[in-house]
Amino acid sequence: MAITKEKTMRGALRRVQVGNALSAFGSGFTLPYMFVYVERVRGLGSLTAWLVFTLFAAAALVVLPLGGRGIDRFGPRPVLVAGAVLTSLGALSFGLATTHWTILVAAFLFGAGVTTCQPALATMVVRCSTRTTRAHAFALQFTLVNLGMGIGAMIGGQLVDVSRPGSLTLLFSIEALMFLVLAAVTGTVRLPAAVAVEDASAATARKAGGSDFRTLLGDRPMVKLSILAGLIFFACYGQFESGVAAYATSTVGISPSALGIGLGVNTFAIVLLQMFVVRITARRRRTTAIAATGLVWLAAWIFAGVAGLFHGGSFAAIGSMMMTYALFGVGEALLAPTLGPIVADLAPARLLGTYNAAFALVKQVAIALGPALGVLLVGAGLSTVYLAVLSLFCVAITVAAWRLRKVLPAIADNATPARSKVVTGSQQVAVLATAA
Hints:
Elements: H1 2-30, H2 34-41, H3 45-74, H4 76-96, H5 100-127, H6 134-159, H7 165-187, H8 200-207, H9 212-217, H10 220-240, H11 243-252, H12 256-281, H13 286-307, H14 315-335, H15 339-346, H16 352-379, H17 383-407
Helix pairs in contact: 1-5, 1-6, 1-7, 2-3, 3-4, 3-5, 3-16, 4-5, 4-7, 5-16, 6-12, 10-16, 10-17, 11-16, 12-14, 13-14, 13-17, 15-16
């Protein structure tokens, strides 16, 4: 019976990973070109382009609380299918939109769909793994997403022509199709069934009528993790395609083609190092890996500063920026097997969807706010200030990780050897609720 269940979990996880990789492949076609598509191809200006990214965060604020409750009540599978279909509709609308209002509506639909998919996928990964295999599952998911997105971006770069709006419409249509594939592949996944065993505190909270949101806010480790996650996603992911790109092209003066190579270096670093990093972090505390990420990213910003001391076409300038992108990839590889499993271990079994949705909300808001800092400071010629601020953020990540260790349960910090083969959804010995 145990062998059959383990095979079911592995098969379900493979389908989730494949579907996620294919959707990332579709996103790679459009993500690098969204800003230029709105501003130049449709001629709607930079303000509308900025509003598009702001609406992504606004959509997250609206749908993620509902999505989290939906996952906990109905299971992750139907929520994921609904999110994938909504994303497909948003992507197709994006490709056809020609006015300010239609493109903003498309942006909201797209953002709502993507942010609905994220916690549902994370919950499915947890449901299809054990505590001993979960870090590897999240790391593999992150690797496949980056690989799929990188391949999609390379192919999309050969098809895109900003002088032909139809070429961008084609890219958005491909993305829409890939999210329908995600819905088809994951919508038929048979998730392992398990019986939830609530701990005493969870049962008491339910009888007392405590809300899910109040329970989450009263979870001190989760609140501290959310603050740390905000720093992480603001300082790196929120800068990756905005502030860093603006600094590299305007301050350092490297060419757009060299910038594309930098993105490839980042993806290559993740794919090359991810499974190796998983083996290292499996024997260490997760907070140690997060603290190390802050130091690695600090080194990345130092290399970015060095690049600014040289001419854009010089080997030193280009090489330093390539090191910046590579070190970002190293940090991302360290985070992939740590953040998701911590959330899974902190969440009570009945609130796994809510916790994943809250974490996704923090991520989306931080990523949406990040570009504002980069565009503001770099655009104003304050590149040195920009680098200094982001360096301080990296130091703050390391400090916050050490402070999180003081309140994080041992099992969530990987300080306790995993002995159970069952799927766990919290720091208690509890398995997840009913199958979707």
